[in-house]
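User: For a benchmark we're assembling, each entry needs the component sequences followed by a predicted structure for the full assembly. Here are entry 17's components. Please fill in the structure.
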Amino acid sequence: MEDVTETLLLVLVVVTALAFDFTNGFHDTGNAMATSIATKALKPKTAVALSAVLNMVGAFLSLAVAATIAKGLVDANVITLEVVLAGLVGGITWNLLTWLLGIPSSSSHALVGGVVGSVLAAVGSQGVIWSGVAAKVLIPALLAPLIAVGVASAGTWAVARLTRDVPEDVSTRAFRWGQVGSASLVSLAHGTNDAQKSMGIILLALIAAGAVPADSGVPFWVILSCAFFMALGTYLGGWRIIRTLGKGLVEIDTRQGMAAETSSAAVILMSGFFGYSLSTTHVATGSILGSGVGMPGAKVRWGVAGRMLAAWGLTLPAAGLVGAACYGIQHGIGGVAGTVVVFAVLVATSVAIWVASRRKPVDHTNVNDAWEEGAVDAGLETEVVEAREAALGRRLDVADPFAAPETPATAAPEIPATAAPPATPAPSTPASRQRAGV
Amino acid sequence: MFVEIDSLLKVVVAGLVVGAGLPALFALGVRLAAGRAVPVEVGTPDGRFTSDGRTVRVERATRPRQVGAAVCFAVVVLAIAGGIAFVAGGGH
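Assistant: Structure for entry 17:
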């Protein structure tokens, strides 16, 4: 009976780790490719295919896989398979939720949050090395976007000045090439950095279950499956997130796109080189913001950026809560049943989130549609568009048809105010409150 | 100490040099390769729009400018190749 329990737990941990790997894939496609898709340097499907291939290659290149998880963040002795499973579920749940809302978020921090939460539930506060969490997770989360904004705005400003007199078609074509090169490098770097995480978890699980000796290297099937699932996730593409990054933050041209991705690539690689680990998502988002800040005349949607920053701040606590809850469920029910229930909860939550996403789907056909003012995430835009059209329709019915050209222009400033009360279907969603306040 | 100032500073400086410097170098190459630009009136036959809304006429790039552009692009390509090699070598 013991063996069956152990094997089942091991299998579930491996499957869940691969699922996390998959969500990591689609969450981070945008980091590399959103700018190239938005400026049409690459067609949407081509971009995600390229990114998938490079992520796969990168995953095979990552040699320094360690069978540690959350090193320096939690006491290594408290890490059991049950803790790992609960932590993974916490990370996956936060990844899915932020994907639904089209908010870029750090998968690494979600995983760390989940594990910290489940360790807290397992042994309490003494299992967590809080100074490590502060120094290696919280502070870098604050610094990464700042550094990226700085680097990208400096680069964009320089590019803008130097290409001031260059004909637009020439610079657009040239920088498209630059975009492809820099975006490819970011995808490659992501593959090496992030596939390791799931490989490390699976290796840890295998060692803990006695399936491989303690000093074993990573079995080939582990490398292959982690590489494959990350690539698959990348190819399916977090279109909602790509849309937010490419269209929601800043309207970018090819020059900004290239500057942003080069900044991301440089900061990510330098952080790896000097051993000061930074989240790829935080850096990539900061770079895109910086390319808006550095380009004279570009508009940055700080509302969207602010919402992202809020989500980043919530990552650790939110994933932690889910991780803790899952550990609690597993421990409360106990044994095989507990583990199976936790896994079932994960499946149910994932299905629910996926179904919710189909209400307002974002895919490669509408990823580049214009971003509607007032929308703060990819999922709520159609509400804003419908509200606008409804209000405009009412005004045009009432207005003098011969004064029609004037009407839309004068109606425009008043639409947000009139649209919000009559057109809002739900009592008051955050977006409608925001629109009413505009 | 909560912040490893030493490695942090290195990341910032190296990030700036490479992350801002490479796009700037690329832009310089584009500028050189495009040739000398002369502002002209809107509506001039061979006038073309620049990214910030002006109209210019470009003269074909002279030899030195072409060489300069090639050097700029070569450095950028080498840097990206270096980045790939760095990643392939394990990224440390």
